[in-house]
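Re: that chain you flagged

S.,

Sorry for the slow reply, it's been a week of failed gels. I finally had a moment to sit down with the sequence you sent. For the record, here it is as I used it:
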Amino acid sequence: MESASVGELRENLSEYLSRTQHRGERVTVTRNGKPVAVLVSLDDFEMLRALEDRLDNEEADDALREAAETGFIPWDRVRDEAR
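Prediction finished late last night. Pasting the structure tokens below so you have them in one place:
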């Protein structure tokens, strides 16, 4: 994965965007030599969002399965214990 400083990215933004969009390259953006962000194509971003959604759904399914096995805690009880 290529790396570019904030200054390099600013000076050559069009080039980096083109390479990301058309070649699927990923660019690590650095500030003071430290990575702060990554420039990725829209396809990569959408894939990451889909993976994140899938993981969230799996965690929700696990939580519902656990609640069904161990029982649900009524909202009133949770609220009263939090006070």
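What I noticed first: Residues 42-70 form the longest helix (29 residues).

Talk soon,
D.
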